[in-house]
Specification:
The chain has one domain (2-236): putative 2-phosphosulfolactate phosphatase (Alpha-Beta Complex). The longest helix has 17 residues, at 152-168. It has helices at 14-17, 30-39, 51-61, 90-93, 105-111, 126-133, 152-168, 176-188, 192-196, 200-207, 211-217, and strands at residues 2-6, 21-25, 44-47, 65-69, 97-101, 117-121, 138-143, 173-174, 227-229, 234-236. The model has no long low-confidence stretch (mean pLDDT 97). It is 39% helix and 18% strand. The chain is α/β, with parallel strands linked by helices. Strand 9 and strand 10 form a beta hairpin. Pfam families: 2-ph_phosp.
Amino acid sequence: MKIDVINTAQEVTSKKVKGKTSVVIDILRATSVMTTAIQNNATQIIPVLTPEDAFQIKSKKGNNTILGGERNAELIEGFDYGNSPLSYTKEVIENKCLIITTTNGTLAIKNAVESDELFIASFLNAQATVNQLINSNDIVLICSGNNGVYTLEDNLCAGFIISLLNAKLENVDLTDSAIASLSLYQSTKTNVVKLASKGYHYNVLKSKQFDDDLTECFTPNKYDVVLKWNGESIIKAV
């Protein structure tokens, strides 16, 4: 198995993902929201790039949909919910379609759709995702980043996933960027949040009083659920 890490959504190209298994990570907070929504029995998640796209799809799909997402970590006008995983309880999302647009995570997904297989991961479902990946050959972990800039939290999760794969497999071949993510995680694995809390986006959310979200998003292996892109939307992998 060969593992690579891409540091931002903007760096994802067809050439980097074609013929490979990709995993999109956006810890704060898009993939944490998606993991929670599928865990709580959302029927599917449709990632889109703009609020206008979201409104258009909702008008076609009807009332059994939820509009979720953010711009600059704030609720989008006219949307039902923002980008907090704690909003997507079973009472809210069960048997509903989530249409979501975020600043970074949905862009990373859209840029990676030419992958052979495409999964969505967070700390919340890292081990479940790893269990799905063990038979893959070339894996690309895509850190969504923040507006084209490297983020600590996404790379810490990439390193966590690599460490879990290393524990299950022999002969794992890491690129330099994968080695860097693994080393970052190993340097602080007993207290990941301590390092993540120094990051820019963590502190943006803290300043907006999303403390409960921050706690939730760094909870490892809370859910035994795998999220997969099926060519049209994100669903629970069978």
